Amino acid sequence: MADVSLRNVSKAFGDTEAIKDLTLSISDGEFVVLLGPTGAGKTTLLRLVAGLERPDSGSIVIDGRDVTKLEPAWRDVAFVFQQYSLYPHLTVAENLAFPLRSPARKLTEDEIRMRVAEVAKLVRIDHKLGNKSTRLSGGEMQRVAIGRALVRKPAIYLMDEPLSSLDAKLRGDLRLELKRIQAELGATMLYVTHDQIEAMTMADRIGILAEGRLVQMGTPREIYTEPANLHVAARLGQPAINLLPADLIADAAAPTGTKTIGARTEHLTIRRAENGHAHGTVDWVEHLGDQNHLHLTVGNRKLVTLTDPDSLFKKGDRVTIQLRAPLYFDGAGNRIAG
Ligand SMILES: Nc1ncnc2c1ncn2[C@@H]1O[C@H](COP(=O)(O)OP(=O)(O)OP(=O)(O)O)[C@@H](O)[C@H]1O
Ligand SMILES: [Mg+2]
């Protein structure tokens, strides 16, 4: 495994600037997740590292070696693509063995068989080694695709939303497995996704990608508690952070220059207004099983927060709202330390 860095990398397709002056360092053995919406430049970034695209400017260094002008084959990366990309006519075992059969490797059949068995076990597909890859469920195919990358020990693994086509249960399981595998192998991993849960649960560090720019980089906790701006704050948190005009709910602690207050569930204390003053009204209570979403109207704004399922709020209740150390943003959308 190795450390990887991108220095001032830019890439345009015609008028579309897909990656803009992006600088990023990944340490040996680190799991970095880039989080961004569709079109943010995630796939382009991975293709640049893999050598499937050439940057217009900037450089890419893998394990101390400038690979900017090297062909993909010489970069020592393994790529898991956004869509399944198995060889349909081959069995699971043959798919897994494929990257090991390159003439450059000179592995014996025994060595290949051992490595395939090892990886099949790792991604829990060892019971299907003889199956044709078309005769697998979506989740199994994706496990083979991940296994086919893991069968090699490259400088870095590049993963392009490998779990996005799977159902929620399987996605949850594979998320944990990938994290376990990465830790076991001490693998350097650059993983891109639009799924905030994947980013929060797997990453050593998260990078927030927006319109080809790396907006902020930090540990999941840093990104969540100290977002640089409104954009980053809105990317993380379930339900999404409530962004409110500074004067909607009185907050004596708001620093001067505050234009917007960012209030997540943990920043809000909601109480039923016994009599007299209320800030807002309960619109509805959404039951999710282990918790409830409480939907409120405050002035002309809608707010969503979590409550525990035993809370007795109901539609029409008038409530008071207290803010506890929320996030503050200035007129340009940048966070002001509270
Ligand atoms: N080969 C190409 N030719 C022209 N434009 C491209 C090409 N590849 C990507 N783009 C454009 O570059 C931008 C970034 O695309 P990219 O595929 O990297 O986004 P993404 O973050 O992976 O999105 P998604 O989440 O939908 O996969 C988009 O505006 C896209 O239309
Ligand atoms: Mg993509």
From TrEMBL:
SMART domains: AAA (SM00382). SUPFAM superfamilies: MOP-like, P-loop containing nucleoside triphosphate hydrolases. CDD domains: ABC_MalK_N (cd03301). Its main location: membrane. It is a peripheral membrane protein. Residues 4-236 form the ABC transporter domain. One of its GO terms (biological process) is carbohydrate transport. One of its GO terms (molecular function) is ATP binding. InterPro entries: AAA+_ATPase, ABC_transporter-like_ATP-bd, ABC_transporter-like_CS, ABC_transpr_MalK-like, ABC_transpr_MalK/UgpC-like, Mo/tungstate-bd_C_term_dom, NA-bd_OB-fold, P-loop_NTPase. GO terms for cellular component: ATP-binding cassette (ABC) transporter complex, substrate-binding subunit-containing. Keywords: ATP-binding, Nucleotide-binding, Sugar transport, Transport. It is found in: Cell inner membrane. Belongs to the ABC transporter superfamily. This is Multiple sugar transport system ATP-binding protein. It comes from Neomesorhizobium albiziae. The lineage of its organism: Bacteria, Pseudomonadati, Pseudomonadota, Alphaproteobacteria, Hyphomicrobiales.
